[in-house]
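Q: Convert this sequence to structure tokens.
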Amino acid sequence: MLVGLFAALLVISNVSAVKLIGLGTVDFAGIRLDATVDGGVFLFPLTYILGDVLAEVFGFKAARRAILLGFACAMLAVLSFWLVQVAPPAANWTGQAAYQEVLGFVPRVVAASLAGYLVGQLLNAMILTAIKRRARSSALWVRLLGSTAVGELADTAIFCAVAFYGVIEGAQFVGYAVLGYAYKCLVEVVLLPVTYQVVAWVKRREAPV
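A:
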């Protein structure tokens, strides 16, 4: 169930990330930045929470299998979108241009997402399990927040550079990257009590590592 939800969130987020959402401007450390986020901001942070649960309960190897399965599902999705795009449209169908304008951008977004996703999620799982193995006295929240901070930083940097370099520039690009990273980490903090409950629930029903 967790792996299925994990893969679904990744695929949905990749498609949603095609749209950029403007939130006006914000002041960050005295610098005025254009606040821009992509549509994946709503669901993608949840993949890190589920990744934390998988790594915490089942260990790095199991988490890695889930991460690779998510990668395969996202690749299947982008291949399907591409095949539909290049297939000849019916004579009475007028949505080809709209389909291509939106989903035609998905391959670049998915390439960016998968590169960031693989690096970020693997770092997240590695750090969480390493802290758990080497410092067993560390509280769960230390493992969850520490691993997410590093994983999301790598993920956000790679994704922003690959997906939107040349599409958004200057203050808008900086604001997009900074706001995206801050928001993803904030989601982890806000949902920490939920993550605790999910970890406890899964451990009661599965053999923890």
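Residues 28 and 175 are 9 Å apart (CA to CA).
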